[in-house]
Specification:
Elements (H helix, E strand, L loop, with lengths): L6 E4 L2 E4 L7 E5 L2 E5 L3 E7 L2 E6 L4 E5 L4 E4 L5 E4 L6 E5 L9 E2 L19 E2 L2 H13 E5 L4 E7 L3 H12 L9 E9 L2 E11 L1 H10 L20 H15 E6 L4 E8 L2 H13 L4 E7 L5 E7 L1 H10 L6 H4 L19 H11 L16 H22 L6 H8 L9 H11 L3 E12 L5 E6 L6 E2 L8
Antiparallel strand pairs: 1-2, 3-4, 3-23, 5-22, 6-7, 6-21, 8-9, 10-21, 11-12, 13-14, 14-16, 15-16, 17-18, 18-20, 19-20
Helix pairs in contact: 1-4, 8-9
Length: about 475
């Protein structure tokens, strides 16, 4: 197995592939387990391929690298990927927890107000939210005299939450945040914002070391340790990101709520996709330009993800908008099942058929409205399966449920029983490879090779198995 920039899943959390000394989560003969895998070489790679799935996940691999795909008999095997393949994505997350973090050991001698922080900062939803907020709208301003921690906001809602969180980490004092109003022009229109500032050498150094400095997302990143944290911390981190650079909009015409995140940083966008995946959420990236012509990455969360967010995302500012979300019956329409061969699709179409609603004389060929609906469903599924075959695609979960609801005798066949099991399980999803293109890296990349049994594969941070 070799993979660029991969976070692999091990028994004490997620880690970069070149840093692990733990047992790694592997998939072998239909079973997930933690096994001791020995890495035996590191080599530079000159020819790389980028694989993109229907959920905007990106796999950057050596061009001759096999990955785990499903074959015509619904068995997993490792081979070179092709467009239209379906690949496995693990749904059940098992991430080891880093329970706390220590702030840098610095004195506050240069600060007028000196803060005495507790020794261990808990990595919970509150601290996750704090990090997300400062990634979105915060920055550190350095001078020779002191370090200012700044946050831009249109009102005091988020800064008040910041104060509430920081107060948890102070032994005696309460945090003081100053506020300076700022009326300015933005994209040709008058705009209002507030600059909320407080001072601490310790926290400024923490933010600089872990999420970056300066204004703007291009200088920011997720904290290096986020892959080792609890889901509580990661939900908080995502909430802070959405409360600042995210948006929750309602399409009144479609009666639909949407959650989006916009950034000019490709690295940050890709890592937010990873973060979403670690929380069993699915998001996609589309590319655009800002009014000033900069590259822009627009992240959209699926309706199924919004349903999960509604119960777990600790938003402060935008919660009122999210709580109005009501999922539609088709909220998971972009979820796929294992790809079937052309011959299996033809077999399924033949069994379903495309029965007539009326005879040649115009006489209805059904006796009840239930029978009429069954005929209409079969005709619709017959056409859907034709398009799946024609487009070199896979059957969606919604379509699979409709097929299974027909109660076809063919589903008693061992092959189709296996297809039903793989299509309806909650343990993993199937992603469709939509594009395979050459990848040109701006910097030299290393390929890490692992000693694996022939059918064994590693599981990475996105739940995709190689």
């Amino acid at each position: 197995m070799n993979y660029f920039n991969s976070l692999v899943r091990c028994d004490n959390g997620l880690t970069f592939i070149d840093r692990t000394s733990s047992n790694l989560l592997t998939y072998f003969n239909g079973r997930l387990s933690y096994d001791n895998v020995t890495f035996y070489s590191t080599t530079p790679s000159s020819t790389l391929t980028e694989i993109i799935t229907n959920t905007s996940r990106k796999l950057i691999i050596p061009s001759d690298q096999p990955i785990l795909v499903i074959d015509e008999d619904l068995n997993l095997l490792r081979r070179k990927p092709k467009q239209g393949d379906t690949i496995l994505r693990l749904r059940q997350e098992t991430i080891g927890c880093k329970s706390h973090i220590n702030l840098p050991k610095l004195s506050e001698k240069k600060q007028k107000q000196k803060y005495d922080f507790i020794d261990e900062i808990p990595l919970d939803s509150h601290f996750g939210y704090l990090n997300g907020v400062y990634i979105g709208d915060g920055w550190v301003s350095d001078t020779e005299v002191k370090h200012a921690i700044c946050l831009a906001s249109e009102d005091s809602v988020i800064p008040s939450k910041v104060k509430e969180i920081i107060d948890r980490y102070l032994k005696k004092e309460k945090l003081h945040i100053s506020c300076v109003p700022n009326v300015h022009e933005y994209e040709g229109k008058e705009s209002y914002s507030e600059k909320h500032t407080w001072h601490s050498d310790q926290f400024a150094r923490y933010l600089k070391d872990n999420i970056g400095t300066g204004q703007g997302a291009i200088n920011k990143r997720l904290p290096y340790y986020w892959t080792e944290t609890s889901d509580s911390y990661r939900w908080g981190l995502l909430a802070g990101l959405i409360d600042t650079d995210g948006s929750i909009m309602k399409n009144y015409q479609k009666e639909q709520i949407g959650v989006n995140y916009t950034t000019i940083s490709e690295e940050l966008a890709n890592n937010i996709i990873r973060l979403a995946g670690s929380l069993n959420l699915t998001a996609t990236i589309t590319y655009s330009k800002t009014p000033k012509g900069k590259d822009c990455y627009y992240i959209t969360f699926t309706q199924e993800s919004l349903l999960k967010m509604k119960g777990k995302l600790p938003l402060i500012k935008k919660w009122e908008a999210l709580k109005e979300f009501i999922p539609k019956e088709t909220h998971d329409r972009n979820k796929y099942t294992p790809k079937l061969s052309d011959s299996r699709l033809s077999e399924l179409r033949a069994v379903i058929g495309s029965p007539r609603l009326k005879s040649r004389k115009g006489t209805p060929l059904f006796r009840t409205t239930t029978e009429e609906q069954i005929i209409r469903d079969k005709r619709s599924l017959y056409q859907i399966l034709y398009r799946v075959k024609h487009d070199n695609s896979a059957i969606t979960k919604n379509t699979a449920r409709s097929i299974l609801n027909l109660g076809l005798d063919i589903m008693n066949d061992p092959f189709w029983r296996k297809w039903e099991e793989l299509s309806t399980t909650d343990l993993y999803d199937w992603e469709l490879i939509t594009k395979i293109i050459p990848y040109e890296s701006p910097v030299p990349l290393n390929v890490y090779k692992a000693d694996l049994e022939e059918a064994q594969a590693l599981v990475d941070s996105n739940g995709i198995i190689y």
